[in-house]
Amino acid sequence: MTVSPERVSPPGRVADPAEGITAEELRLAGRNHAMPLEALRDDVTPPGLHYLLTHYDMPAVDAASWRLGVSGKVAEPVELTLDELRSLPRHTVRVTLECAGNGRAALTPRPVSQPWLDGAVGTADWTGARLADVLARAVPDPDAVDVVLTGHDHGVERGVEQDYARGLPLEEALAPDVLVAYEMNGAPLPVQHGFPARVVVPGWYGMTSVKWLRSVTVVDHPFDGFQNRAYRLRQDADEEGVPVTRIEPRALLEPPGVAEFATRARFLSAGPVVLRGRAWSGWAPVDRVEVSCDDGATWTDADLGPAEHRWAWRSFTVAWVAPPGLHRLRVRAHDASGRVQPDLPPWNRGGFVNNTCQPVVVQVRPA
Amino acid sequence: MTVSPERVSPPGRVADPAEGITAEELRLAGRNHAMPLEALRDDVTPPGLHYLLTHYDMPAVDAASWRLGVSGKVAEPVELTLDELRSLPRHTVRVTLECAGNGRAALTPRPVSQPWLDGAVGTADWTGARLADVLARAVPDPDAVDVVLTGHDHGVERGVEQDYARGLPLEEALAPDVLVAYEMNGAPLPVQHGFPARVVVPGWYGMTSVKWLRSVTVVDHPFDGFQNRAYRLRQDADEEGVPVTRIEPRALLEPPGVAEFATRARFLSAGPVVLRGRAWSGWAPVDRVEVSCDDGATWTDADLGPAEHRWAWRSFTVAWVAPPGLHRLRVRAHDASGRVQPDLPPWNRGGFVNNTCQPVVVQVRPA
Asked: Among B216, B243, B270, where does a domain finish?
């Protein structure tokens, strides 16, 4: 078998209309796992089930020799050990993280990348120091604009060898719930979630929550690195595009009944059933969730659970008397900023932010 | 969108020659995650990275009310609480588990099911009671033939609603390393690995290591349930076929260098490099691993690491002086029973046991 060099790190592309998922997309799908939807039953996603997206390889970082450098446009560059990071005031935040590419594989035509359907989400209790407290140790200059967050993960993307790095506006970085986290659900970070320390930016898509954090660099201009250019909404490849930032609203149903192995369709007995799920938005609190049991012809408002954790998903329930037959359920979330999930997928070349409504097919048997 | 009923639980099929991975296979790939190959660096797979295959939904089982029933052809049927199970002699075994479908998606034509490439594997330290000690509590009849292991996982497959259940010959069930495990790597089982207790049958493909174990039923005939009929090697759908049992030999390289995001190809600088990996077999200890750096034209014997854990993978290393250019590495394992990985995939309709050699594409840059 020969391999042509241009296939080794190809430019981004959109799949041909009749092109199924490729072997390379499938390899990404095997590595970068979604949260199984039955895990929507839990407030906090059980360890190992939280979604995971790693651009390159997961680095093995030695905690004893790990240092976090804070430098650039600052009065006093510092280097923190893990113990020093842990000595800063400790803060825990429950956060729903979602991949910006969630929903990509449902787009037509399909942007070729990590082929998420709808489960690229998860919720955890993250504990760490505030990024604001870390930055305060170094004292950013008055003309600071962005912070550049760089991880130990290193690889090649679209022909460019790079450390994974993202710029974040300083004012966002100083928000009180933005963490340099060293614990997930009360235990040290698992390797795949950024051991020994990572950023967590609540309300933003996951690309900004840099894992395996190695440095924070303060700059006096908007950072224009590879990942900040990659995560943009564009119709054409040569467009400047709009940066991907906060999480658009989305609701997911915990699929009712029992599963079919191959199709993941659901079987249910006719009669009353309570449909359950979770909804979230990074722009404003979720204030309404609607459920349709007839593929969008009619919608019913769900009952919302408590909203105690601003940055975590909110539970919802709705009663349904399931009639025999084949049904297609849909669900959609609204938030307090007026955003609502669209009926048609919002297409862009990168396949980002496709928060169109989740369909769930249910075969209801006579009781 | 209409959904035709025959699509809800279709019979098994083989993909058309030009048919890419389907949306349904992709949904399975997102749920049932592979082990990222960089985790081959670890003797024991870090929590959350072990491969995972669940036929239906992961059930949420309450440990306090959980009971393990042992009945059927026995002198004294018993029901054990989790505390009673834990009071039996405690035994820990390091085991490499692999899915019988590992390699399925690399077959041509492709059997349509969970589309594994090569990472459906993982190694853990499992702790529990010996299944032999559990059976001894009930005293199997002298004419006992099989034990039927049934889980709490329940769903629909090929049109049949069922609890997940597997028969295992009694003499295999009595082997001293077959466990009813309640700990994985020193902690209670994660929900996705069968909380609160599961079977672990070292050396066998994973389908026999029933998770969320609810009952052990002793029978006086070979059990012929759905899963025992499903996991068979067949060329045609109407063949009786040969049962899938023990794990065929396989070696995997930890891909060297750094990864390209989209293709997972590897970049490496020219010069000396140590290639590393792991190899295993359920039939007999691995006693030879060969590595080819020229796509199979020539092969070099690797140095094998210690063989302290019979049921776990064995490490290997081989030195390579990487010349500039594009190379395709391959690796193959032999075991003491004379089995060796084949050059061509052993095709069957279920897509089981494809242990053909792993290819790793490496782009070597001038030093």
From this structure: B243
B124 shares a domain with B239: yes
pLDDT-based confidence at B11, cuts 50/70/90?
Answer: confident
Of B7, B48, B55, the CB nearest to A263: B7
State how far the Cα of B150 lies from the Cα of B70, in Å rounded to an integer: 11
Identify the residue among B7, B8, B361, B365 best suited for mutation to test binding to A, counting A beta carbons within 10 A and taking the highest.
B8
Give the total number of structural domains in chain A: 2
Q: Which phi-psi region, left, alpha or beta, contains residue B271 (left: φ > 0; alpha: ψ -120 to 50)?
A: left
Q: Which residue of B has its CA nearest to A114?
A: B262
Element (H or E) spanning B85, and its range?
helix B82-87
A146 in the same domain as A25:
yes
Both A291 and A330 in one domain: the answer is yes
pLDDT in tens, B136-176: 999 999 999 999 999 999 999 998 999 999 999 999 999 99
Reported confidence tier of residue B4, pLDDT bands at 50, 70, 90: very low
Beta-carbon separation of A31 and B34 below 8 A: yes
Contact flag B161-A258 (C-beta cutoff 8 Å): yes
Two structure tokens written together for A1: 């078998």
Total-model pTM:
0.96
User: Which residue range(s) make up the domain with A221?
Assistant: 5-243
Contact list, A39 vs chain B (CB under 8 Å): 58
> What number is the average pLDDT over the span B103-129?
97
Chain A residue closest in CA terms to B20: A20
Q: Which of A215, A243, A271 is the last residue in one of the domains? A: A243
Q: Which of B5, B47, B155 sits opposite A190 (nearest CB)?
A: B47
Contacts of A58 in chain B (CB under 8 A): 36, 38-39
A262 and B113 in contact by Cβ < 8 A?
yes
Residue A68 token pair = 């976090």
Domain CATH for B144: 3.90.420.10
Same domain, A227 and A281: no
